[in-house]
Amino acid sequence: MIFQDNVIKEYLKNVYFITGTPCGGKTTVSRALAEKYGFELFDVDERFDEHKKMSNPLFQPAMNTYFNSADEFFGRTVEEYKNWLLNNTREQLEFVLLDLIRLSENKKVLCDCHLTVAQALAFSEPARVVFLIKDPSNLVDEYGNRPDHQGFFQYLNSATDIEKAKQTVNITLYELNVNRIEEIKSSSFFWIERTVDSTLESTLTCVEKHLGLI
Predict the structure, then answer these.
(1) Do the beta carbons of residue 39 and residue 33 sit within 8 Å?
(2) Neighbours of 7 (CB within 10 A)
(3) 45 exposure class (CB count in 10 Å sphere: 0-12, 13-18, 19+)
């Protein structure tokens, strides 16, 4: 069965989407908003293992790809790594949308997720979406140093050639996001670019104003 986008959009009217690029501040802002306003917080990354258990390798092959070691994981070409990340996100999206429909029936839900501009247009409205972005150059150390990414960072550091593994991740994240950032900036969606001068307080205020919370 295929649901039309307008049907999904109607059922997601109680969902705010905080999306964007790696290290843009999605998780920090989402958690702060959820705590302040009592929203149900739905973190797509935290739900991955749950969704994987419900998945089927026949229909969700990327989600069920197994790697024997960090060398195998980071030894892929950048193109292979990019395609795997994109397919993972695409395959999980169906689980995410169904969860959001169920959770938001009678309450507001804040979703920390990975949406493209096209997906945001299909499933929501600009008034309920915020893109938080950051220059995608040399992201691996900042990404890996976050408390919620320690598992990934330890896995990366178990590679035989750590610097080569870091380079693969950096190039992959850059190529995945450099054009996406330009697409976001030229879209009708509200976006905030994180810089060295950014603060959580100022970013949070801007997001609150856009979402009509203050």
Answers:
(1) yes
(2) 11
(3) middle
pTM: 0.94
Tokens of 182: 């330009």
Cα 91 from Cα 54, distance rounded (Å): 12
In tens, the pLDDT along 32-53 reads 999 999 999 999 999 999 999 9
Average pLDDT, the chain: 94
Q: How many CB atoms lie within 10 A of CB 67?
A: 13
Three-state DSSP state, 104: coil
SS3 139: coil
Model confidence over 102-144: pLDDT tens digits? 999 999 999 999 999 999 999 999 999 999 999 998 887 777 6
CA distance 79 to 81: 5
CB 125 within 8 A of CB 117: no
Sign of CA dihedral 196, 200, 203, 207: positive
- Residue count (the chain): 214
- β pairing state of 15-20 and 40-43: unpaired
Helix locations, the chain, DSSP H: 5-11, 26-37, 48-54, 70-74, 78-103, 117-123, 140-144, 150-156, 162-185, 200-210
